[in-house]
Design a protein that fits this description.
The chain has 444 residues and is mainly alpha-helical. It has one domain. It has 21 helices and no strands. Helix 4 runs parallel beside helix 8. The protein starts with a helix and ends in a 14-residue tail after the last helix.
């Protein structure tokens, strides 16, 4: 371990994770306050409707948006490292154009489909206008260009600061809705305004930093013309979009599947358990966000980025084991105190899902290593295969065993993802000598 921390890159990864963690820790506490206020201020059925409306919009955004931050980090980082600012600008311009196009398309499709899907998800006709209006957030949710630009420019401190905005406003708005007894409409408005403000703040930070680096023209959107100067641009973004659409939709679609099979009350309980579990996995997510930009500055043909991934995975896995114990012994009191006795059934579900924590945290470097190696198609195939297995298990086991079946399916799905990602990562490591590190030569 002493040798690990002697590695400057490893220390940088931990530093960036620490910056992000400071914001996430505060955000998690404020997010729990918001859920607690909603849980106590609404009936279980209405709480479930609130969660379904929110997850429908986030699910729509997750499905249609391109993971342009991956593209920016993968290609703008080495470009800036080698002094090619024009190429870095083109990469960001291309990503921004995709963000705009996919966000508007996703909003229109989500609004158009909702009247036909609302009944299946348990959204009554009286709440349909609220749900349609909530879909206005889909374009602002496609903020990957802003996030990717700040990561490339090493401004993780600004990302950490932004992470507090949405949960702070959501917690405050939920408290007002609870104390003033504003009902479901008040809570929906609190969620909506908080999400909107958080996204706009992130874009504001990105604009400021790009202006400081004399790169503000990078936010002039471009797609087809710019793509001609970027070899394999479309191939990369389509592949990573498909892979991350599958991954991003995992949580929202799981909630919708549970809602369809078991109803809004069960969906609310599932949301509580999955939210607590998601909060517990944040350390791995923070390490991944700090890890990916750093390995893009290293030569993948050497063992250094791969060894860094092993060290980061072992560290995160160890933290995950400790978090599992904390959740097992502390989850029930937290749910009882925050949400009340009527939501204690969520703890039984959480107890089944929590064992996936250590697995998720220990294997977080795999996806980043595959992108570094240019194996994004292998990552896509792995994600799709694992998700198909997961949703088949989710539908079957939820029908047979209710919420407990959903928890078992979540654990088995996590194991499937880890195995499917590990195999191509090992193959890429063995073939690392063939990986080209320097940026591609732009087309004339």
């Amino acid at each position: 371990m002493k040798d690990w921390f002697a590695d400057g890159v490893f220390r940088t990864v931990l530093r960036n994770a620490g910056l992000l963690g400071s914001g996430k820790l505060v955000g998690a506490a404020l997010g729990l306050i918001a859920l607690a206020c909603a849980g106590r201020g609404l009936t279980p059925a209405l709480f479930g409707v609130l969660m379904i409306i929110h997850t429908y919009a986030t699910g729509a955004g997750g499905i249609v948006k391109f993971q342009t931050w991956q593209y920016i980090v993968r290609h703008a980082t080495p470009a800036l490292h080698h002094g090619d600012r024009d190429r870095a600008r083109d990469v960001i311009r291309f990503a921004f154009g995709l963000d705009l196009a996919s966000g508007i398309t996703g909003m229109v499709l989500a609004m158009a489909l909702l009247p036909f899907l609302a009944g299946y998800f348990g959204i009554g006709a009286e709440y349909l206008p609220w749900a349609i209006a909530y879909c206005l957030l889909v374009p602002t949710m496609t903020e990957a260009t802003a996030s990717g630009s700040l990561r490339v420019l090493d401004r993780f401190d600004l990302i950490a600061a932004q992470q507090v905005v949405t949960p702070f406003l959501r917690g405050g708005g939920a408290a007002i809705a609870y104390l003033a007894d504003l009902g479901l409409g008040g809570f929906i408005l609190a969620w909506f305004l908080a999400d909107l403000a958080g996204d706009l703040v992130l874009w504001g930070f990105a604009v400021r930093e790009l202006r400081r680096r004399d790169m503000l023209d990078a936010l002039k959107p471009g797609m087809f013309g710019v793509a001609r100067r970027l070899p394999e641009a479309w191939s990369f973004v389509w592949t990573t979009n498909a892979a991350h659409s599958v991954y991003a939709a995992w949580g929202p679609l799981s909630n919708l599947v549970v809602a369809t099979i078991l109803g809004p009350v069960a969906a609310g309980l599932y949301k509580i358990a999955s939210t607590l579990l998601d909060s517990a996995t944040k350390p791995a997510d923070l390490l991944r966000r700090g890890y990916y930009p750093e390995i893009m500055r290293l030569d993948p043909a050497t063992t250094r980025p791969w060894l860094l991934g092993v060290r980061a995975g072992l560290l995160a896995g160890g933290v995950g084991l400790m978090v599992v114990l904390v959740v097992i012994f502390g989850g029930k009191p937290v749910i009882s105190f925050a949400f009340g006795q009527k939501y204690l059934a969520a703890y039984d579900l959480l107890r089944l899902m929590v064992f996936s924590l250590a697995i998720q945290m220990a294997t977080f470097p795999l996806e980043s290593l595959l992108y570094m190696a240019g194996r994004q198609r292998a990552a896509l195939i792995a994600q799709v295969a694992a998700v198909l297995v997961y949703f088949a298990l989710l539908a079957t086991l939820t029908h047979l065993y209710g919420l407990n079946g959903a928890g078992i399916a979540f654990l088995l799905g996590t194991i499937a993802v880890s195995i499917c990602m590990l195999v191509p990562t090992v193959i890429a490591y063995r073939q690392r000598s063939t990986i080209v590190w320097r940026p591609e030569t732009p087309k004339p």
